[in-house]
Specification:
single chain, 505 residues, 19 helices, mainly alpha, 5 strands
């Protein structure tokens, strides 16, 4: 077996393990209410509809920011319940890894440096690498970039108008599909146009005039794709509603410099910004070679998305994930180039500096890392299987959901409500993870209510069952203590992570 093939098998084992873990143990609870939304979509309900899930409704219809993703989850649920959801989640993460691997290979990255580059970007962004519509949305962006890169390198070019027509059609298809997957394509669409424009400018044998024509075609196609999305021109207004509801209240919409988040997220943002700036600088320095070195244009195209996203992380940390997940091929190229330099220095005679040590020269050769990487995968296998075993089931909530009284009015933190909405449709909720639907006023009220010590105040007094998760940022130990001390509430068996109460009598 050739070393390259063996190395890609090692990479597949590592990234496959990561995909299994992130799909099997679902930290977020949004996928569960998204399954229910998708089931209702497939049953024929309109995408914008009155909310029927809450017992204290707000004056706003329920609309979905990721209808196609919800439908995919629902199809998985219909095929195999939680196992089907697990398969959909696993495939979504696996396709992302395939996309970045193909881009990294186009840049000339070798397998093991690609693995290092992937871990360098994926581990800081691990919270964003999960069964999320945004992962699939960004994968579509990367696949569109792969297609545009392949299109620009054809040996035979059709007439300019035919060329522009193909680009326009593909832009409509990519942006249109992305718009159904997630509303983030309102930003990914212009990023697609800009990144494709870079590729057209760097294509060998393409005149500036043809590059301009192709850019115009991709822009028109992007506009057409957005128009074919689920909400058409209303998408911009709906996206603004999401931002207004969540800004400053939901963690993903807080900047990385927010007290309490700095230690966790500032290093990730710094890695993203450093990689994006390094990629931009390298592409700028090699711009004169853009027609002969394919790596220049492709790196610049990736940076078109990653650099603004890295800067945007200082206003909303959700952009950290966008930047890091786009920068994996750039990181793989950087690690490959560093590895080449390291190997060259190690082979110098006489050895200099740290390379005078035999052990340093030994570990400078990537071949010696193969058994180490294989051994680590083998050692981590029991943990991988343990974290995959839930198969996307919400185990903490499963311990208590069946004990809720029928038709009770649930007060809970937002994350605990998700599995309840899926598994107990008879139970109505006061708030859940649909922050854009509930609006800013309900989110502010939730922060007050879920940290209250007065169990006789509405909406606590209006609820008939309560669930609180130890991991939800909205939940507070003070409310749990007050409920335990109140004769109006009786605890029900739960789990270490989720506690439940029902109204006495």
């Amino acid at each position: 077996m050739r070393s390259g093939t063996r190395d890609w098998m090692i990479v597949s084992a590592w990234l496959g393990s990561l995909a299994l873990v992130r799909s099997g143990s679902v930290e977020e609870r949004d996928p569960y209410w998204q399954v229910r939304a998708g089931v209702e979509n497939l049953a024929g309900l309109p995408l914008v509809r009155p909310d029927t899930w809450g017992w204290a409704p707000v004056d706003a219809p329920f609309f979905q920011t990721s209808p196609a993703w919800n439908d995919l989850l629902a199809l998985g649920w219909g095929a195999g319940r939680f196992l089907g959801v697990f398969v959909v989640a696993l495939l979504s993460i696996a396709v992302y890894f395939v996309a970045v691997a193909l881009l990294a290979r186009r840049l000339g990255a070798r397998p093991l440096p690609f693995l290092v580059g992937t871990l360098l970007c994926a581990l800081p962004a691990l919270a964003m690498l999960s069964p999320r519509a945004t992962v699939l949305a960004q994968t579509l962006f990367l696949l569109g970039l792969l297609w545009a890169d392949r299109w620009r390198r054809r040996d035979v070019r059709p007439p300019a108008l035919i060329d522009a027509g193909v680009v326009l059609a593909l832009a409509v298809a990519v942006v249109g599909a992305g718009s159904w997957v997630h509303l983030s394509w309102l930003l990914l669409a212009p990023a697609t146009v800009a990144s494709w424009a870079v590729l057209w400018l760097c294509a060998p044998g393409v005149s500036v005039g043809r590059a301009g024509l192709l850019t115009a075609a991709s822009a028109v196609g992007a506009i057409g794709g957005l128009a074919l999305g689920p909400y058409g021109a209303d998408a911009w207004a709906l996206s603004r509603e999401v931002q207004k509801a969540c800004a400053g209240l939901v963690i993903e919409w807080l900047g990385v410099l927010t007290p309490g988040l700095v230690v966790r997220w500032l290093p990730a943002a710094a890695i993203a910004l450093a990689l994006a700036l390094a990629g931009a600088l390298w592409a700028a320095r090699g711009w004169s070679r853009r027609h002969t070195d394919d790596r220049i244009g492709l790196t610049a195209a990736l940076v078109v998305l990653a650099l603004p996203a890295a800067l945007g992380a200082f206003s909303a940390l959700r952009f950290v994930g966008v930047a890091l997940l786009a920068l994996v091929p750039v990181a793989a190229l950087a690690v490959t180039r560093a590895s080449d330099r390291l190997r060259t220095r190690a082979a110098e005679e006489p050895p200099r500096g740290a390379f005078r040590w035999r052990r340093v020269r030994f570990w400078s050769d990537g071949r010696h890392w193969r058994p180490v990487l294989i051994a680590v995968v083998a050692l981590l296998l029991p943990g991988t299987l343990l974290l995959t075993a839930p198969l996307s089931r919400p185990l903490p909530e499963l311990a208590v959901i069946d004990r809720l009284p029928r038709d009770c009015r649930l007060l809970s933190d937002p994350s605990s409500a998700g599995p309840v909405l899926l598994l107990r449709p008879d139970v109505r909720v006061w708030i859940d993870g649909r922050f854009d639907h509930w609006g800013r006023a309900r989110l502010v009220e939730a922060g007050r209510v879920l940290s209250s010590t007065d169990v006789d105040t509405p909406p606590i007094s209006d609820a008939t069952c309560i669930l609180l998760s130890a991991t939800d940022p909205f939940a507070d130990d003070r409310l749990a203590t007050a409920l335990d001390d109140s004769p109006a509430w009786s605890p029900i068996p739960g789990s270490d992570l989720v506690q439940g109460w029902v109204r006495t009598g």
